[in-house]
TrEMBL record:
<feature type="DNA-binding region" description="OmpR/PhoB-type">
    <location>
        <begin position="124"/>
        <end position="220"/>
    </location>
</feature>
<dbReference type="Pfam" id="PF00072">
    <property type="entry name" value="Response_reg"/>
</dbReference>
<dbReference type="InterPro" id="IPR016032">
    <property type="entry name" value="Sig_transdc_resp-reg_C-effctor"/>
</dbReference>
<feature type="domain" description="OmpR/PhoB-type">
    <location>
        <begin position="124"/>
        <end position="220"/>
    </location>
</feature>
<keyword id="KW-0902">Two-component regulatory system</keyword>
<dbReference type="GO" id="GO:0000156">
    <property type="term" value="F:phosphorelay response regulator activity"/>
</dbReference>
<dbReference type="Pfam" id="PF00486">
    <property type="entry name" value="Trans_reg_C"/>
</dbReference>
<feature type="modified residue" description="4-aspartylphosphate">
    <location>
        <position position="54"/>
    </location>
</feature>
<keyword id="KW-0597">Phosphoprotein</keyword>
<feature type="domain" description="Response regulatory">
    <location>
        <begin position="5"/>
        <end position="119"/>
    </location>
</feature>
<protein>
    <submittedName>
        <fullName>DNA-binding response OmpR family regulator</fullName>
    </submittedName>
</protein>
<keyword id="KW-0805">Transcription regulation</keyword>
<dbReference type="GO" id="GO:0005829">
    <property type="term" value="C:cytosol"/>
</dbReference>
<dbReference type="InterPro" id="IPR001789">
    <property type="entry name" value="Sig_transdc_resp-reg_receiver"/>
</dbReference>
<dbReference type="InterPro" id="IPR036388">
    <property type="entry name" value="WH-like_DNA-bd_sf"/>
</dbReference>
<keyword id="KW-0804">Transcription</keyword>
<dbReference type="GO" id="GO:0006355">
    <property type="term" value="P:regulation of DNA-templated transcription"/>
</dbReference>
Length: 237
């Protein structure tokens, strides 16, 4: 469990430090954020196992944050932290997608036990979907290692489909151009470079390394719901 990624987001810095230190002393790796904006940016590029989130973040919208997190990261363990301890508030929190609802001020021991309980359950859920990037060409969707679902254009999907079939090997420029349905000899390669540039900006966590005069090497991408496929045939550029 020491390799699990725990994220703690709280609007009060003193509370954030106290709780994060308590979890760290229990052998957990903890990342901390004090705003909804910072948390969102972090989750787009980093994995997380369990998230404890203050529902009263100054730039957040209470349970709407929980609903959005559950929709985007279905495998994430979510602990809602709130000063409202009423029965209705707890029911609303759990109904919105939180796995647990703790009333503030939170006792560090209770938070630690809740995190551990969720971590014991997570391997069963995570095991259903191997880690890494997963492409579903039918739905034009890429799933990031942290479970986020990213919508793709048709051309982005075609490029990543070619990358998936290469299984981490070099994909030639000609192979990518033909994957786009274009004629290699008539195609303006600057269009391919622009498409790759957009992909890099859209997927900052996915490495796309250009090999001058040859093509690109992508981080391994799995074809979702399909058996491993053979590598694409390489063409001389």
């Amino acid at each position: 469990m020491t390799d699990a990624h725990i994220v703690l987001t709280h609007g009060h810095l003193d509370t954030l430090e106290t709780l994060s230190q308590a979890l760290h002393h229990q052998g957990l790796t903890v990342a901390t954020h004090s705003s909804w904006t910072a948390l969102q940016a972090w989750l787009t590029v980093r994995p997380a196992s369990v998230l404890a989130i203050d529902l009263d973040l100054p730039d957040g919208q209470g349970l709407e944050m929980v609903r959005e997190l559950r929709a985007r990261y279905p495998q994430l363990g979510i602990i809602a932290l709130s000063e409202d301890g009423s029965l209705n508030a707890r029911i609303d929190g759990l109904s919105s997608g939180a796995d647990a609802y703790l009333v503030q001020p939170v006792d560090a021991r209770e938070l630690h036990l809740t995190v551990r309980t969720l971590l014991r359950r997570l391997p069963l859920a995570v095991g259903e979907c191997p880690p890494g990037w997963a492409l579903n060409p039918r739905t034009l969707t890429l799933t990031a290692p942290n479970g986020a679902h990213i919508a793709l254009t048709h051309n982005e999907t075609r490029v990543l489909n070619a990358a998936a079939r290469a299984e981490g090997a070099l994909v030639s420029r000609r192979c990518l151009i033909e994957a786009l349905g274009a004629n290699y000899w008539d195609y303006d390669e600057r269009r391919l470079e622009a498409l790759i540039s957009r992909l890099r900006r859209k997927l900052p966590g996915l490495s796309v390394r250009g090999i001058k005069g040859q093509g690109y090497v992508f981080d391994p991408v799995r074809l979702d719901g399909q058996q491993p496929v053979s590598r694409v045939a390489e063409h001389v550029n």
